[in-house]
Write a structure and sequence with these properties.
1% strand; two-stranded antiparallel sheet
Length: 303
């Protein structure tokens, strides 16, 4: 069975629903964005932050962010550079700019409330198919296929019989996710959260805990003897010595300074002038840094 198969368990997709949701009811982590008081804005902030970043790193930044900007309009009222500053070392700081842009659009177009409509969510800056579906599902209890890396891995193993999903989400995966969705909104929303948690805690990438999996007996991959991945090698991302690391060092200087920074200060953070210049140019191009007429640098829009 290939990774693009859309075969569902012999008992039908509903056979997976109850055991996974029941497991989630007992084992779900108490995360702040899952609490009722988080609201749709809290859910949206968490979804931006959790992209490619583990929960333990997100938690302190999330709490500080919501304390400072409890509503989208609060964030929109400040310079985009302040969002970059508050993002800290979560990585991929363009997410901070996108979240600031989404907040500004929410304040301008939707009276400061995160929209419920999936199409309106998709129209927000920086919001793609996954984030729109996640917010609509987790914040508003709607029926959407929410496909993050964890969910894709659960479906690849439990249904398609492969160790890992394709590197990029495919049309076949989306079709399968829709076929597996419970019919009613409430159960579908719970299913989305439950499958995500199952992938994060049990059906992990490197060492899945099949003994604690509520659907181990239904898992196509386990039933086939847990065959090894046959696709291209899956390499972890490197960081040390990359342009990403240099960008991070340059941004760290600018985040810590509340006044524009001289070029000489930035030059001191990395030994390779060519790589340093390339990283700084990338930050300028991405809108994460501004160069002032006097040659100094600052976070965008900050004093």
């Amino acid at each position: 069975m290939t990774a693009t198969s859309t075969t569902t368990p012999e008992a039908g997709p509903t056979a997976l629903h109850s055991p996974v949701i029941d497991w989630f009811d007992q084992h779900a982590r108490d995360l702040p964005w899952r609490r009722p008081e988080a609201g749709a804005w809290g859910v949206m902030v968490s979804e931006f932050m959790l992209q490619q970043t583990p929960v333990n790193r997100v938690l302190p930044v999330y709490e500080e962010w919501l304390a400072r900007w409890p509503r989208p309009a609060d964030l929109a009222a400040e310079a985009a550079g302040e969002a970059v500053r508050a993002w800290g070392r979560l990585g991929y700081p363009r997410r901070a700019l996108r979240l600031h842009g989404a907040a500004a659009a929410i304040a301008e177009r939707h009276g400061g409330d995160v929209p419920k409509d999936h199409h309106q969510l998709l129209a927000l800056p920086g919001v793609g198919e996954y984030t729109a579906a996640a917010v609509a599902s987790f914040a508003y209890g709607q029926r959407h296929a929410v496909l993050d890396t964890n969910v894709r891995r659960v479906f690849a193993r439990a249904v398609s019989g492969t160790q890992y999903p394709p590197n990029a989400t495919t049309a076949a995966e989306r079709k399968l996710a829709r076929a597996l969705l419970p019919e009613d909104d409430t159960t579908a929303s719970r299913w989305a959260a439950a499958t995500m948690e199952l992938g994060a805690l049990v059906c992990t990438a490197r060492t899945p805990s099949c003994g604690g999996c509520p659907i181990a007996d239904l898992c196509a991959w386990r039933g086939a003897g847990s065959p090894a991945h046959e696709g291209p090698p899956r390499r972890g991302q490197t960081y040390a010595g990359t342009d990403r690391q240099v960008r991070g060092k340059l941004l760290a200087v600018l985040r810590e300074s509340h006044r524009p920074v001289e070029r000489a200060v930035l030059d001191a953070v990395w030994h390779d002038p060519e790589q340093r210049a390339r990283a700084l140019t990338g930050l300028l191009t991405d809108g994460l840094v501004e160069r002032l007429p006097d040659g100094r640098y600052r976070l965008p829009g900050t004093v």
